[in-house]
Design goal:
The complex is a heterodimer of chains A (555) and B (432). Chain A is α/β, with parallel strands linked by helices and 555 residues long. Chain A is built from 23 helices and 16 strands. Classes of the chains: A alpha/beta (555), B alpha/beta (432).
């Protein structure tokens, strides 16, 4: 048993639902107890879809367990095929059905139905949502393409001369992070270098579309969490090349274009011309809307402009799915000038890549799906900004740290009406605004650092967001910082979260001085000072200790 | 209502049954796919009613995902619910489930020392593998008392539908209630704080003895129960709780539910009657509020009268709602779906229901065919169906909101009507 306050992923059958709901002409019969239809709301409410997901549930109840639940499966399959007339059928179990072992996939295959049936084996007690989505997509593509697989060793014909090269975009799905707009943005990017998009899947594709996958010249694996197994298989069986670089961020988008160009023998120098991003062009109206002269991205200039100088070295903690965590780490460090103080992912499939990347930033990657472990790590790193998921918003609220969402799991506010891609040039614009917004504005940051007795702009206040000061980190002992108890000469301060209970003695003057440090770096200053005291064997922290530690660590 | 037909074979086999005012009611029983929540969802409101309680689901990742999808749009500095997710080792019997549960509970209680009552909530997986949570609750209580009391109940989908989760939670609290011989009135079922205050004020005015509530606002303030306790149900879905309280000697007051002016009046009169007050003695205390309530409802009656209404099964509130919307707002009932019909608890409501089809259970695809054929002016349904039906051009009222809104009593009668008038008014406003 594992104590879970928040889970980063749903069960694997929700991944399978994401594939079915993304597509047209696919139906999913899910052997599941009454109540599991809650998952429909993910699509009708969070994504605001105006259609029921193409899922038929058996919704067995306790009284059915004494009877023939296998017969319920057959009835559901028969009725679903008759009513919805899909081109292909997925059949699988939810976690409870897995326990009663009715073998619904095998039952359905034995019913003599005239359409392809994919029997999904999704182990609900060991795998999770993204794995379920990837497995379902892989099994479906394999089932539909198995009669087209060429004999081993068959050479693949290159792109025909004079014809625009064609690519498939694989991975975008229902309930993915900003997939809808990412597809539009990537199609635009490719259009600008004269590359045509053939099949986008699973989002919007039908089984007939999946059968056309091998006609393209190149696969683009936009979301490895969903599409990597399929792309790998297509590479093996059909010798289809694949670009795995995900174009999130300026650098990654440039790399992506270069790789696509190299794979298809297309010249991308125009698309990468740096002068088009020039500061002087940013406000020129003809660059907005035109296809070839579209402004590349405003992020580089926004980030270089002097207003962004105060972003330098802001301490940021990144936790997300593998793809978005890796992209965010690169943007944060190389494109926004932040300092990365934590990098982690809940995607075990990406653990290797994230570990390698973290090592490059001088960090140890946090690979976990334990919310409490993430909370602990963030608390210890004391960042000034958290880039994470919906779950990190809970942590950031508890610790009063600014936070922006960069990955699933998400809630309804992260499926916006406006165009909000993460990929490509426009995605970088969106990212700049989204990540900088929660931080305190530069002028306010200076003034709060200088004058601490204002009645309106109090400690932790961010007047561009809301009224009222935020609680500083470690709310349990922050009161001591703001209002030192008058009679006691020293105050005992406990450090860290409830699990670490090491207690430090601060002199009252020392505590008062700590209170003068701007709130968003105060947690870090406290930790540095205490670490310094430990190294030096100082047992009462004074004002001098605080400044000696500051000189020692440089900030 | 002896004549009930199963409709497994034929999609529709209505049968006459005696209804209110001598009019025929038609009861349709269906089985098939049910588009409803499981009882775990009750956690979403119970955690706010009793902030000193924690709800620990023992189940799978699906259960964890359900609760967080429902409540996770709110940002919690301190979560009030969680899941002990079963792993392969638990299923294979490699890990002793009881030891594992003890470890998880210790971990939780050390992180959240302010928890006073811990609910272990059973789920489909824990019920199917027959994990004995009642026993575990007893063991853990011994270990953590007096600081924390541990209680168990089932919120599994195979046994409970949506609000039945609250029924099981309250029924599980009944054995903990202190015994008392004193005369008392126990209001049972979650209501909004202000609604409860209004009723308590009114019952005090009438001079009724010791009014208590279940669930209490603090999980440790448990109301007393005994042979002189009279139970007044505020919610229609409390079958198990009512029977558990009866088993403790308490007496159930038969009444309709306090929805709308008429329902509220009958409900209060039934309670007063149980303590020997006549309707005419009660009347003067109600008159001003009744008038206010009627006036407030009248504003929406204009928009609702004559409109055809179709309710899909969700919370068991459907029958009292249909009664109110017909009786006081003039709506025409097409079908009233309920996930489960307890004829004892619904008797006073059924007497007043006009001729209409009541359906118990669900075959969602067939029911949607009936919705499309009937073309109602308003469909009351869950969120899984609401947007899809709107996209088909039908006005919907999502039913879950009725469990999350103050709707009982005179002062809320207008608000209740407004909830149904709002989607219709919105359609008139928007020109898109």
């Amino acid at each position: 048993m594992e104590l879970t306050l928040w889970t980063y992923e749903g069960p694997p059958h929700v991944g399978a639902m994401r594939i079915a709901t993304s597509m047209e002409g696919v139906h999913y019969v899910l052997h599941a107890p009454q109540g599991d239809t809650y998952a429909d709301l993910l699509f009708t409410m969070i994504e605001r879809r105006g259609k029921r997901p193409p899922v038929t549930y058996t919704t067995f109840q306790a009284r059915d367990l004494g009877g023939d639940t296998a017969e319920m499966v057959k009835t559901s399959v028969r009725e679903a095929v008759e009513r919805f007339q899909p081109q292909a059928l997925l059949v699988g179990e939810s976690c409870t059905a897995e326990l009663i072992q009715d073998q619904p996939g095998a039952l359905a295959s034995g019913m003599g139905l005239p359409i392809p049936i994919v029997n999904l084996e999704l182990p609900a007690y060991s795998k999770k949502e993204n794995w379920g989505a990837a497995e379902t997509f892989y099994q479906l593509v394999r089932r539909l393409l198995k009669d087209q697989v060429p004999p081993p060793g068959t050479a693949r014909p290159g792109p025909a001369p004079g014809v625009r090269p064609k690519v498939n975009l694989l991975g975008p799905s229902a309930l993915g992070f900003r997939c809808r707009d990412d597809v539009t943005e990537v199609c635009r990017l490719l259009g600008e270098i004269g590359v045509q998009v053939s099949v986008v899947a699973p989002l919007g594709a039908s089984p007939a579309d999946l059968r056309r996958i091998p006609e393209a010249d190149l696969n683009i694996c936009l979301y490895p969490e969903v599409a990597k197994p399929v792309c790998d298989w297509l590479k093996r069986q059909f010798a289809m090349p694949c670009v795995y670089t995900v174009p999130i961020g300026i650098g990654a988008t440039r790399d992506f274009l270069q790789e696509v160009g190299a794979a298809l023998d297309v010249d991308v120098t125009m698309a990468l011309r740096p002068e088009v991003v020039g500061a002087s062009d940013l406000w020129s109206p003809q660059l907005h809307g035109g296809s070839t002269e579209r402004a590349r991205s405003r992020l580089p200039w926004y980030s270089r402009s002097v207003d962004s100088t105060y972003l330098t070295g802001k301490r940021v903690f990144v936790f997300a799915d593998g793809t978005h965590a890796l992209a965010a780490a690169r943007i944060a460090t190389a494109e926004l000038g932040f300092e990365l103080v934590g990098l982690g992912t809940y995607s075990r499939e990406s653990a290797k890549l994230v570990r390698a990347a973290a090592k490059g930033y001088g960090l140890e990657a946090l690979v976990t799906d334990d919310y409490l472990a993430v909370e602990q790590a963030i608390s210890e790193a004391a960042p000034e900004l958290v880039l994470g998921t919906q779950m990190e918003r809970h942590i950031a609220k508890r610790l009063s740290i600014p936070c922006a969402v960069i990955s699933t799991p998400i809630h309804v506010q992260d499926v916006p009406a406006r165009y909000g891609p993460q990929m490509g040039w426009e995605g970088a614009n969106v990212i700049f605004d989204t990540w900088v917004h929660p931080l305190m504005m530069g002028l306010e940051e200076h003034l709060i650092g200088m004058f601490r007795e204002d009645f309106e702009f109090v400690d932790g206040h961010q007047s561009h967001l809301h009224a009222g000061g935020a609680k500083p980190m470690d709310s349990s002992n922050s009161r001591d910082v703001q209002h030192p108890p008058a009679p006691a000469p020293v105050a005992a301060v406990s450090v860290g979260t409830a699990s670490t209970t090491k207690t430090w003695r601060w002199s009252q003057e020392g505590l008062a001085e700590l209170g003068k440090v701007p709130f968003f770096v105060r947690g870090k200053v406290r930790r540095n000072t205490e670490a310094f005291a430990q190294i030096q064997g100082i047992d009462l922290i004074t004002v001098d200790t605080l400044y000696e530690a500051k000189a020692h660590y440089g900030r | 209502m002896a004549l009930i037909q199963q409709s497994d074979a034929a999609p529709r086999s209505p049968s006459p049954a005696p209804g209110g005012c001598g009019q025929p009611l038609t009861l349709l029983r269906e089985r098939g796919q049910r588009e409803v929540f499981c009882g775990l969802t009750s956690i979403v409101w119970l955690h706010r009613r009793m902030p000193d309680a924690f709800f620990l689901v023992v189940g799978s990742r699906t259960c964890a995902h359900l609760v967080q999808s429902a409540a996770g749009v709110m940002i919690f500095a301190e979560p009030r619910f969680g899941t002990a997710i079963l792993g392969e080792r638990d299923l294979a019997g490699l890990a002793d489930a009881n030891d594992e549960l003890d470890r998880v509970v210790d971990q939780l209680l050390s992180r959240r020392p302010e928890i006073r009552t811990l609910f272990l909530v059973g789920s489909c997986p824990s019920e199917v593998i027959k994990l004995d949570l009642a026993n575990a609750a007893q063991r853990l209580s011994q270990r953590h008392l007096p600081r924390v009391r541990v209680v168990s109940y089932s919120g599994s989908g195979i046994e409970t539908t949506f609000t039945q989760g609250e029924d099981n939670a309250l029924a599980a609290m009944v054995p903990l209630l202190p015994r008392s011989e004193a005369e008392s009135l126990l209001l049972v079922g979650t209501m909004a704080d202000q609604v409860e205050d209004q009723f308590c004020r009114l019952f005090a005015q009438l001079g009724l003895p010791g009014v208590h509530t279940l669930p209490p606002r603090r999980s440790t303030d448990l109301p007393p129960v005994g042979p002189n306790t009279r139970i007044l149900l505020c919610q229609p879905y409390l079958s198990a709780t009512a029977r558990a309280l009866q088993a403790q000697g308490a007496q159930l007051i038969a009444a309709p539910y306090p929805l709308g002016v008429e329902g509220t009046t009958a409900w209060i009169q039934a309670a007063a009657g149980a303590f020997g007050l006549t309707a005419s003695a009660v009347q003067p205390h109600l008159e001003a509020a009744r008038q206010r309530g009627r006036k407030a409802v009248a504003r929406y009656r204009e928009q609702l009268a004559g409109k055809r209404l179709f309710l899909l099964p969700d919370s068991q509130l459907e029958i009292p709602l249909a009664r109110f919307l017909h009786q006081e707002c003039g709506m025409v009932l097409q079908e009233v779906g309920t996930p489960y019909l307890d004829r004892l608890l619904m008797a006073a409501e059924l007497e007043q229901l006009p001729a209409a089809t009541i359906s118990e259970g669900q075959h969602v695809d067939r029911q949607l065919e009936r919705v499309r054929a009937a073309r109602p002016d308003l469909v009351v349904c869950g969120l899984g169906l609401a947007n899809p039906l709107e996209a088909e051009g039908m006005a919907t009222k999502w039913s879950i909101e009725l469990v999350f809104s103050p709707i009982q009593g005179y002062e809320q009668a207008g608000d209740l009507a407004e909830l149904f008038a709002r989607p219709l008014a919105r359609r008139q406003r928007l020109h898109l």
